Amino acid sequence: MLPLQEGSLVFVEYVEDWRTIKNGTICVVVTQDEGVVLKKVFNYLTEKNVLILKSTNERYAPYPVLADDIAEVWRFVGYYSKEFPV
Questions:
Q1: Please, are residues 41 and 62 in contact by the beta-carbon 8 Å criterion?
Q2: Which of 37, 43, 75, 78 is the most exposed place for a label (fewest CB within 10 A)?
C-alpha cells in the first residue's frame, strides 16, 4: 500500500458523522464491495450522496462510493513502520 511500507501499522479514529470529513482527508473506508481500503476522501455526501475515493498510489484512478455502500469510515491519524521511509 504505497506510500506506506508493507507491514506498517495504521492508526485511525472512528468518524461518526461522515459529512464532517474534509476533502483530501486520508481515511480507512469499509465498504460492501471493496472491503477495507486506505484512500483520500472527497466528500460529496450533501450534494450527491457519494464519497470519491482516491488512492494514495497515483497508479489507481479515483472512484465513487455511494453512502449506502459504506459501513464505516475511520480517519487516518498516523502510522508505525520498522522501515525508514526512502
A1: no
A2: 78
